[in-house]
Amino acid sequence: MGDPSQARAKASLFVCGDIVNRSRQDGLVCTDELARIIAGADYSACNFEAAIGGHGSAQPKVGPHLQQSAATIDGLKSQGFDLLLLANNHIMDYGPPALAATIERATAAGLDTLGAGLDASQAYRPLIKQINGLKLALLNAGEAQFGVIDHFRRPTTAGYAWINHPTIDATIRRMKDTCDFVVVFVHAGLENYPIPQKEWRARYRQLCDLGADAVVASHPHAPQGYERHGESLIFYSLGNFFFDRARGSGKEDRSYAVRLELERGRPPTFQPVFHVTLDGRVGLAADDRKIDLDALCDKLGEGYDQAHDRMSLEAYQLYRQRLSAALAPESPIRKVKRALRRLLGSAPKKPDREGQKTLMQLHLLRNEAYCLAARHALEIQARESTDKQA
Fold it and tell me: According to the model, what pLDDT value does residue 4 have?
């Protein structure tokens, strides 16, 4: 007869969304009340959206360069966190030295890291945790953006894991055979929309079919709904946890975290933890500030296809504008003016214009969420054009 305590083995896992802390030098991003909930789980994880400052240099890329206070790592540890998820599009903004310093400081503080590393082996390596008699396999990967380790050979192999790399699928299958639960954390999707793209929805379901018991996503910076696929749970976006922008922005970032309940022999369950940013820290949301999670889940059902079409067409307009600008040749008059300024020694020190255009083209063609939106929008437009001609 087996050990009865092992049969009832269970563990709780707290997971929240994106964290970037530039202003709180004490590193304490949440209230004591919320910290007690985080520390009360058996294991707690967050998406650490940028490397710590003071290391490396800004890398050539499109978009903002983010870094955060090194004290954030110690603050997160003291407030109950155990794991920093590093597979995201800002973790390599300041290059390998900043990533290395982040991992080193996290390790010194007693925090685990996952999803990024100084080589592909480290970035794609799953994290195995034994908690209360349960063996958990945790994986972290993101969509292809700046810093990803995918199929392209780069001067450095430091970076984060790609969610569509075949290594991910093979790892999930392997971990399912040896672990009680497999949880996959993903960083992907269009930003600032309340629904996921169809392709990510299909990919997350595929991850569940491969053996993931839960898929927990971030990156859209806005909360999205959840659903069950078979016995697995999929959370499409937890939104921001603590993401300080310019001081005085006053953005509340109403969203939710989840406390997953894992028990051997049973499908995972969860409890939402609604939170809001007030007075510079994340705290539990009062009833009048809680997001309507049921309404977000409803958006995944009736009316989803129509909303997805509108989202794709809207995102494509921005994509097309940026791509057109990146492909447009510089006018002859502008070239002459720039040459004269250089000749006279009055040309400002600006990044190479053609180099910036190349980076923008690369960004738009590599960014999976934008490419998916563009393809879907063009499919809609082509279908409508065909229907008109019929």
Answer: 46
Label residue 249 left, alpha or beta by phi (over 0 means left) and psi (-120 to 50 means alpha). alpha
Which sign does the torsion angle of CA 27, 29, 34, 38 carry?
Answer: negative
Closest CA relative to residue 67, chosen from 57, 81, 75: 57
What count of residues does the chain have? 390
- For the stretch 52-73, pLDDT in tens is 999 999 999 998 999 999 999 9
Measure CA of the first residue to CA of the last residue in the chain; give whole Å: 70
Q: Quick one: pLDDT at residue 5? A: 47
CA distance 189 to 241: 17
Low-confidence ranges of the chain (pLDDT < 70): 1-7, 155, 246-250, 330-353, 390
**Whole-number pLDDT of residue 346:** 55
What radius of gyration do the chain's Cα atoms show? 22
Nearest to 119 by CA among 159, 165, 65: 159
Q: In this predicted structure, what is the pLDDT of residue 234?
A: 99
| Residue with token string 């499409």 | 236
What is the CB neighbour count within 10 angstroms for residue 147?
Answer: 25
181-211: b (≥16 Cβ within 10 Å) or e = bbbbbbbbbbeebbbbbebbbebbbebbebb
Identify the H or E element spanning 161: strand 159-161
What is the distance between the alpha carbons of residues 337 and 321, in angstroms, rounded to a whole number? Answer: 25
- Alpha-helical segments (H) within the chain: 4-7, 32-40, 71-78, 95-109, 120-124, 166-178, 198-210, 293-298, 304-327, 332-343, 353-366, 368-389
Assigned token pair, 111: 């925090």
